[in-house]
């Protein structure tokens, strides 16, 4: 399995946001690290096919993602930065709703949703309305919904925003426990969030990929 990002360029109006970004990922956990405004969200949205690049391609197993997009979507899990929750639904109902949207088999959906809610530590509040959830709880619900279809590619945009230190540890364990047959990309502007989770770090600065390497090696340089 591989995901190849090739010569991606993106402009908004006449401003260049991403400059000729290329890299290939094999299964593993990757941290996309960069300051606010560096272009992380834009790049992740392009990888998910939600935003179109002006130039370049994203290939999954050597095929352009838009060639068989429905197929690609079905193996993709995405937590966008501005994820919409439905405050009047309970956590469990929300998960069931996302499962239905993603075409998860009805019989297994309930079990899968309950299992994921347990994994992210929301079992006790699954029957409470989302409007009563804390920021960290919502974030963990966002991570759970991204994993509903057991995605091969899991993309989490700033997943640790709003998590308290205890929740951050839970999050690390959760990501660490994911099967190694997935490509996981998580973006953050906080070095320590990815230093110990990610197998590799990609550093993006002003729309350019400036470094890529093993987390512990790169962090030494900072
Ligand atoms: P990051 O996720 O690293 O904070 P973003 O990808 O959100 O960075 O943003 C990179 C740059 O692109 C920023 O300057 C931002 O203002 C700009 N940008 C992002 N989305 C849009 C958009 N839809 N229209 C215009 N500019 C955008
Ligand atoms: P709408 O039908 O309202 O346009 P979508 O279902 O396309 O909404 O997307 C809803 C949200 O989920 C958006 O914020 C989008 O970025 C995100 N998204 C898009 N594609 C996927 C996907 N394959 N998996 C998870 N989230 C996705």
From TrEMBL:
GO MF, any single term: ATP binding
Keyword flag ATP-binding: yes
Source organism, top-level taxon: Bacteria
Residue span(s) of domain ABC transporter: 3-222
Protease found in the keyword field: no
Key words of the record: ATP-binding, Nucleotide-binding, Transport
Homology family: Belongs to the ABC transporter superfamily.
Name listed for the protein in its UniProt record: ABC-2 type transport system ATP-binding protein
Upper classification of the organism: Bacteria, Bacillati, Bacillota, Clostridia, Eubacteriales
Part of the full-length chain shown: 1 to 222 of 291
């Amino acid at each position: 399995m591989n995901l190849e990002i090739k010569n991606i360029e993106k402009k908004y109006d006449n401003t260049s946001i991403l400059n000729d970004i290329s890299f290939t990922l094999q299964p593993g956990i990757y941290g996309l690290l960069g300051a606010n405004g560096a272009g992380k969200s834009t790049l992740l949205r392009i990888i998910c096919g939600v935003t179109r690049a002006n130039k370049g391609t994203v290939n999954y197993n050597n095929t352009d993602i838009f060639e068989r997009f429905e197929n690609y979507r079905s193996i993709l899990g995405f937590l966008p930065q501005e994820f919409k929750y439905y405050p009047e639904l309970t956590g469990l109902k929300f998960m069931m709703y996302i499962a239905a949207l993603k075409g998860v088999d009805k019989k297994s959906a309930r079990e899968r949703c309950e299992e994921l809610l347990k994994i992210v530590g929301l079992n006790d509040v699954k029957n409470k309305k989302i409007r009563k959830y804390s920021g960290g709880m919502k974030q963990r619900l966002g991570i759970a919904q991204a994993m509903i279809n057991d995605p091969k590619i899991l993309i989490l945009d700033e997943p640790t925003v709003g998590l308290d230190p205890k929740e951050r540890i839970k999050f690390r364990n959760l990501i660490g426990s994911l099967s190694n047959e997935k490509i996981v990309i998580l973006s953050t502007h906080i070095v320590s969030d990815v230093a110990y989770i990610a197998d590799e770090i990609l550093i993006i600065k002003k729309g350019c990929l400036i470094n890529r390497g093993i987390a512990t090696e790169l962090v030494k340089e900072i």
